[in-house]
Amino acid sequence: MKLSQFGFDLPEELLAEYPAENRDEARLMVLNRKEQTIEHKLFKDVLEYFEPNDVMVLNNTKVFPARLYGNKEKTGARIEVFLLRELNAETKLWDVLVDPARKIRIGNKLYFGDDESLVAEVIDNTTSRGRTLRFLYDGSYAEFRKKLEDLGETPLPKYIKREVQPEDQERYQTIYAKKEGAVAAPTAGLHFSKHLLKRLEIKGVEFAEVTLHVGLGTFNPVEVEDLSKHKMDSEEAFIEEKAVLTINKAIKERRRICAVGTTSMRVLESAVSSNHTLNEFSGWTNKFIFPPYDFSIANAMITNFHTPKSTLMMMVSAFAGHDFMKKAYAEAIKEKYKFYTYGDAMLII
Questions:
Q1: What fold characterizes domain 3-63+169-348?
Q2: Of the candidates 64, 73, 247, the residue with the CA atom closest to the CA atom of residue 169
Q3: Rounded CA separation 75/85 (Å)
Q4: Global confidence as pTM
Q5: Tens of pLDDT along 43-66?
Q6: Number of H helices and number of E strands within the chain?
Q7: What are the residue ranges spanned by the domains of the chain?
Q8: Is the fold of 3-63+169-348 the same as that of 67-151?
Q9: What is the CATH number of domain 67-151?
């Protein structure tokens, strides 16, 4: 398919600036692929669509406060630094993005914090915006990581124009987040409350946890009309034996297996065996899913509403069917569903 087939007009007021007051009371659109029907519910109603021994696949990655602000030596210019990934724990090397409007060269130093107690030196250019920083810190590694967390800010996406608020630290994190490493939240999971998870558990729904550390590459714009020529950035992912056993049992029993979010779906589809069951996985994936595509593991999906021409929307279109997805998105805009990170949700069955 072509990039232009995923364009649509999205009114700016439908981009969610704030989360729903209660996690599980966001709106939920339910798409039935077989019946080609659309229902309008609240997220907590997701309980109605699952039976005992069905499986929900959760991405347990944890967002770290990746946005820092430093002052450039000599000029004192304030520069935004976005931590992407740690390259070497011992030498405190990090890949970062810097404000493209600022000139920052190899050898420049940045000072962080009011007391300038954390210093970093630019040691390499990686892309037009990318740099490699070496943090100069004499304390232990644990102290260094604590310092980064204290100075860092919750990395809300740029479309949210307001200042980061204290509640964002909690709400831009799933309640089951465990393994730190993401620079963006797996947003479909933000709708689950502790109460809803407990109700699903009481009903007999099983949970399988996987890990995919979401990077900014997921949100990079597609710049080629021919989708087969687009290259995704790699993201680190893990599937352990416990999840494999739970999911493969559900496949054998023909249960409903629901990928919670595009990130869960991507890691599942990166670890498919030759007989269409799930393998353990530890490594990096740059899997790009767009129509037409045959999914091997999940037969249901929970996701948010995505922006035009995004790789996320393309994956969901592959799962729901492109024409049905266009119809659902037109309905969502008409009914004023909220889109993107803090927006409403969709269940596709």
A1: QueA-like (3.40.1780)
A2: 64
A3: 27
A4: 0.91
A5: 999 999 999 999 999 999 999 999
A6: 7, 17
A7: 3-63+169-348, 67-151
A8: no
A9: 2.40.10.240
Indicate the residue type of 63: V
Q: CA 294 from chain center: how many Å?
A: 22
Of 20, 25, 22, the closest CA to residue 43 belongs to 25
List, for residues 304-340, the tens digit of each pLDDT value.
999 999 999 999 999 999 999 999 999 999 999 999 9
Distance set, CA 178 to CA 15, 58, 144 (Å): 28, 11, 20
Edge-to-edge strand order for the sheet containing 345-348? 37-42, 27-32, 345-348, 300-304, 257-260, 55-59, 206-212, 235-239, 281-285
Cα–Cα distance for residue pair 50/203, rounded to 1 Å: 8
Q: What residues form DSSP beta bridges with 86?
A: 94
Length of the chain: 349
Asked if residues 232 and 311 have their Cβ atoms less than 8 Å apart, the reply is yes
Q: How far apart are CA 213 and CA 25, in angstroms?
A: 26
- Cβ-based burial of 113 (10 A; exposed 0-12, middle 13-18, buried ≥19): middle
The yes-or-no verdict on residue 114 having pLDDT over 90 is no
